[in-house]
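STRUCTURE REQUEST FORM
Protein name: Alkyl transferase
Source organism: Papaver somniferum
Requested output: structure tokens
Priority: standard
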Amino acid sequence: MINILIFVVLVVVIIVAEKFRRSFTSLLFKSSSFSSTKRAEKSISKVVSSDAKFLLEDKLPAGLSRETIPKHVAVIMDGNRRWAKKKGLEPMLGHESGARSLVKLLPLCCNWGIKVLTVYAFSTENWIRPRVEVDFLMKLFENILKEELEFFMRQEVRVSVIGDSSKLPRSLQKIIATVTETTKRNSSCHLIMAVNYSGRADIVQACQSISNKVKDGLIKSEDIDEGLINHELETKCTEFPYPDLLIRTSGELRLSNFLMWQLAYTELYFDESFWPDFGEKQFVQALHSFQRRQRRFGGQDGDKLVCES
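Status: completed
Returned output:
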């Protein structure tokens, strides 16, 4: 009888001891887990703070001011063929290298706060070039849009194409429609590619559209003003239709029928580099030149300036 009693007591002691062990282990685990969570939260906080600090850091190259960064930069990408000829290469390789220069420029615009980059890719006059070169350029535009779509999405780049697209190859028209639709909600930078574009033709089509509205009684002739014309131009696709800065490469000093209305008060910068050689260094120099200028828009020194953009 005594042996049975002792056996029962031992069983009870073992059960109680096991429950105590489990409770104690659970308490230790919770304490450890709580400490780990706190350490993790502190670690995450440090990372977030570090990222926030990084985001707040001025990403601009030395000497540039964020307050006077142009909102809209337009570029006449000139000199691809001459670059290739100078190196003893086929003209097509010059165009390919020029395309790479454009892709390299986009992240800089995104990082530095330039909201719109408009590039003169193909003018209405360029159709007179050799057929083999024109066909190559059309295919190059198509490949750029296809191959860089993931890059556009990753960099939050919106893409628009201005010009008479009806004369472009059907395959190029389709990829233009796809890319513009896919990227339309991106907001970091707006890339506008002028393909089969003419500044004069842009003004003509705007006048035709306005005259049709007058004829249809939608507006009166006295309603026509600069704002209405601007709304009919192809650059109506962007919030900032007037370029602050125009860059032309290869040393040429002319506008070549590019954005004839929109460039009225744009600062002009001409660079000797051929377009394939135009990189970050040359871009920074152009922006330095822009920021050293005083934009008066027809006023005088000391007047309050109103930026057209």
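Reviewer notes: Residues 111 and 288 are 16 Å apart (CA to CA). DSSP finds nine helices and six strands in the chain.
Form closed.
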